[in-house]
Amino acid sequence: MAKYRKLSRTSSQRKALLRGQVSALLHHGRIVTTEAKAKEVRKIVEHMIALGIRERDNFEEVTVQAKVPERDADGKRRKEVVDGRKRTVYTTVEKKIKKDKPSRLHARRQMLAYLYPVTEKGEKRREDKKVDLAAKVLDELGPKYAGRNGGYTRIVKIGQRKGDGALEVVLELV
User: Fold this and answer.
1) Which of these, 35, 48, 46, lies nearest to 115 by C-alpha position?
2) In terms of CB atoms within 10 Å, which end of the chain has fewer, N or C?
3) Could you write out the DSSP letters of every residue in 99-123?
4) Torsion on CA atoms 40, 120, 116, 104, rounded to nearest 10
């Protein structure tokens, strides 16, 4: 018996397909796909969420000093002239940040090595935002599923696809 389904694709095509679907599922929470693909994606997503659960509290909060530019009433950076040149005025602010411990950092890097980068589109190109899926798994999904022992996804059959008759399913996070 094989360890995985080949999905009628070469290894590079199969890996790209699964990476894309795993990234889409973690970003949107549900995807529509064929049953065979859903069963393969489910294995990978369940493993990533298990990583997130294991490492959810494995960080320490550290206070750091950061230089932040001062803003004027219009929201633009405030400038002042120093030695005949315009310079931005900065203030020092203390911020609390989460510093990953080594095992959590390793888990984050494992996820980032597999997941594709995701951007949410804004109305204008400069309004596009990058989504950190690894942070989402560690900070949102890990604590959400902490009380569950597996079974983080659900497959719901929705019928046959019109073109080729393949069984379509909805794969969603529970």
Assistant:
1) 48
2) N
3) EE-HHHHHHHHHHHHHSPPEEE--S
4) -90
